[in-house]
């Protein structure tokens, strides 16, 4: 069966809530789900092929996959530096029918699964620190003889990432985009290119406050995109994943629990039942540029099981058509 990736943006304009951690771990979690569980969803029993897209100039996802040293060497230091999402944005901004071979920009099998081992089915489209200028470059660029306006800008300015990903969608089951903590052009491109979006958050008052604004903004962007591009299909919310939960006696501590209850009232069907606990497993994994699965299960049972359960719920929500 020919693949046609589901594209999912992991977004929240609040910083440090776990976007990168969740994106990285979801890709790994999908490699640990049994074939029976995803067969119904994917229609095949081989491990899901996942493309990670680092759309953040902080390059945290690229570093989480490659280590800071290897990433710097590959992208900035070496005489034969590799291409990144930044160059692809530049090329596809000027010409949507770019002759560029997108595949050449993708690093194959670059997420560590253990000592000297990698997940064969997870690839990465890396970022570049100069992607920080891409929003501005898109804003000032003017394609000759183009005048189909959207929010005061030409519609092609929101379709760049979609055109890039269309070139490789048939090779993946999932494309997961780690978005930056803002709603500038690159993030809007990610939303345009995505079938779904997933919001990680932490249970504090200020983070919770911003959640409605995210869903409202995505809704109005969907309306705007649809008005300008008839083929556009709305980007749907998969759900909201709670991160950094501190437990006491097997359940969230009271202060967090109160916020979680409020969130469940506000978003009754959207909050994931499973959450990710705050813990050393994720911190240690981050320090070693690998997902928590790379360590023996017994060391970090809580967080490994948390990721598996979130992944399972993610698949169920997609499969159930919650978001149809
Ligand atoms: N469940 C967790 N337990 C412990 N540490 C965590 C957990 N989740 C995230 N972290 C740590 O918190 C920090 C922020 O997480 P992360 O980088 O994933 O957030 P982000 O939303 O991507 O941030 P940004 O907005 O800057 O892109 C990282 O150092 C990460 O390792
Ligand atoms: Mg991040």
Automatic annotation (TrEMBL):
Q: Which organism is it from?
A: Anoxybacteroides amylolyticum
Question: Upper lineage ranks?
Answer: Bacteria, Bacillati, Bacillota, Bacilli, Bacillales
Q: Which InterPro entries match?
A: AAA_dom (IPR025669), DNA_Partitioning_ATPase (IPR050678), P-loop_NTPase (IPR027417)
Give the signal sequence positions: none
Name all AAA domain ranges: 5-226
A Pfam family matched by this chain, by name?
AAA_31
Q: What is the name of this protein?
A: ATPase MipZ family protein
